[in-house]
Structures are given as structure tokens and as C-alpha cells.
Write a structure and sequence with these properties.
With 301 residues, the protein is α+β, with helices and mostly antiparallel strands. The protein contains 6 helices and 10 strands, in the order H-E-E-E-E-E-E-E-E-E-E-H-H-H-H-H. It has a 10-stranded antiparallel β-barrel with strand order 1-2-3-4-5-6-7-8-9-10.
């Protein structure tokens, strides 16, 4: 789902100050984690008062239903059970890049409990989380909300830190392959010794595949690339291979423990970033333009 892909850029932990329906201030702690090759996401949220009181604790699932409708399967300490909220719209509000609004029951039906949960994505990297509800016989209105900033890597465990950086790298490569025209894959830098753009990405695919094998057994097993050399000029082949192995790595890291080799995982991340720098040279040298996410990440023109 296209809407879900937008959330990949916001996979991390967040913290901020909010206010609840009783006008009590709280600290909001929020995290977004991908599930099952990014087919869904887990949301963890806690609202903690200044005296340590937990006003709200939540573990929810954001995933499609069987009929492919995106839902927030909301499970929190203030309701008696799991409450499915169906996506109502993704229109931006108050200057956000995108806002996911999930609803349970008709907001105009005063005979029933009804609720909306809104999740705002901001260009600054911040997120907002807002609850609006109405009890049977009562008015429907916004009750509590919090805007939260992404937290530094010091708040994450070591595997979470590296995994979050790899997710960012994977998304940048995905944005790149979507951005460039297919003919660019067969182009070299003019007047300089170089391979093609597609062959650069062949190396990225091969490294992902080879480092994943090394992670599984704890030592280097040699280089092997599943992308055929003569397919490096095919946008479909390159994109599918990049994404398939990225998903395998993500799944492996979610299941792995702190015992995963830090050296091998760091080497994988270093290789990803090394090719970022090389590919920026290709983007400028071949006058291909620069994807927006790359401009933002590396302050490019």
C-alpha cells in the first residue's frame, strides 16, 4: 500500500509533551516499528504524567484488513478490548505532510461511542498523535494530543540503532531507483573511468546478499550477487532485487538478538553509505537531477 510506504521514513522512537482530556500535561513516548516485511507497523505509545502516573498505555497494529482496508487495530489501557479503526482519510492538516485519520463508528451517531485517532507526519521529522471521541449521548471532540520529536540513537538499543539507519538507507535507494529513468542504468560517467549506474547498484545488491549470509553464520562467506550482470540495465530487475534483500535483512534483524555480529552489521551499513556518495557523483555527472529524499538527507541542490 502506498500510504504505508510513507511511514518507512518515520521508523524510530519519539518523545514530546502533550495534554489529555482532563487538561493534565504528560510526556508522550511513541515508537513505530515495521512488521512482516513492512506489510504493517506496530505502534507503542505511553502518556506519563509529571508524577509518574500512566494515563494511557497502548500497543496497536497498523495493517490492512482481509478486504485490504488499512486499519489501526487499537489496543490500549483505556478501552476494554481491541478496537478496529478504519482509515478515513490521509489529507494533511495544520501544515502536516500527511495525516492518517482512523475512525471507529460514525462521529455523528450520539447513540454510540465513536472515536478517531489521528497520526500526523511532519516535514521536520516529528509526529503527532491525537485522540478525539464522544461517549453515547455526549459531544464528539478532540480530547488529547501530543507532538513528538525523534529521539537520538542513544535512546535505542544497539540493534535498533543500526537497523533504523539501514532502513533509512534502504528507503533512499528505493527513492533513487524510482526517480532515475531506466536508460540511466546503462550510463557511465562521461570522460572518466567508471562502471554504469546499474553496475553500482549490482554491487549494493551483492553486498546486501553477502553480508546477510555472513550475519546468519557469524563470518564472511564470500561475495555473491543474485542480480545477473546482464540485468543491471533493467529497472524492474534492479528494484526487485534491492527491495527483496532489504526485506530479508529487516526480517533477520527483527528476529536476531544482541549476539548479532556488530562488525559485520557495521560493514554492511558502511558499504551502503559508501555507494550513496558514489551515486551522488553519477546524479550530478549525468545531469539526472536529485531525488527529494537525497536532497534532504545530504543537503544537496
Amino acid at each position: 500500500m502506498k500510504n504505508l510506504s510513507e511511514l518507512n521514513k518515520y521508523i524510530r522512537h519519539y518523545k514530546g509533551d502533550g495534554i489529555n482530556h482532563e487538561k493534565q500535561t504528560f510526556t508522550g513516548l511513541f515508537s513505530l516499528t515495521p512488521l512482516l516485511d513492512k506489510k504493517g507497523f506496530e505502534i507503542k505509545f505511553k502518556a506519563v504524567g509529571n508524577d509518574g502516573t500512566v494515563y494511557h498505555e497502548e500497543k496497536s497494529l497498523l495493517a490492512p484488513s482481509m478486504d485490504e482496508k488499512l486499519c489501526l487495530w487499537n489496543f490500549n489501557s483505556n478501552t476494554p478490548g481491541l478496537v478496529p479503526h478504519e482509515l478515513k482519510n490521509t489529507e494533511s492538516r495544520n501544515g502536516s505532510l500527511m495525516t492518517f485519520v482512523f475512525g471507529f463508528n460514525d462521529t455523528n451517531d450520539k447513540n454510540a461511542f465513536r472515536e478517531e485517532v489521528a497520526f500526523d507526519l511532519w516535514e521536520s521529522g516529528e509526529v503527532s498523535y491525537t485522540y478525539s471521541w464522544g461517549l453515547p449521548g455526549g459531544d464528539f471532540q478532540e480530547r488529547s494530543g501530543v507532538k513528538m520529536k525523534p529521539q537520538s540513537d542513544q535512546t535505542l538499543s544497539w540493534p535498533e540503532t543500526v537497523a533504523s539507519k539501514l532502513q533509512r538507507s534502504f528507503q533512499l535507494y528505493s527513492d533513487l531507483i524510482d526517480f532515475i529513468p531506466e536508460e540511466a542504468l546503462s550510463q557511465k560517467l562521461p570522460g572518466l573511468p567508471s562502471n554504469t549506474v546499474g553496475q553500482q547498484l549490482w554491487c549494493v545488491v551483492g553486498a546486501r546478499n553477502s553480508y546477510l549470509k555472513a550475519l546468519r553464520v557469524g563470518e564472511w562467506q564470500g561475495f555473491e550477487c543474485p542480480l545477473a550482470w546482464d540485468k543491471t540495465n533493467s529497472k524492474t530487475e534492479v528494484k526487485n532485487n534491492l527491495e527483496a534483500i532489504a526485506n530479508e535483512i529487516t526480517s533477520f534483524l527483527k528476529k536476531s538478538s544482541e549476539e548479532v555480529s556488530k562488525e559485520i552489521l557495521t560493514d554492511l551499513h558502511e558499504h551502503e553509505i559508501q555507494h550513496h556518495g558514489q551515486l551522488v557523483r553519477y546524479l550530478y555527472g549525468l545531469k539526472l537531477g536529485v531525488p527529494e529524499s537525497w536532497k534532504k538527507r545530504y543537503s544537496l541542490d
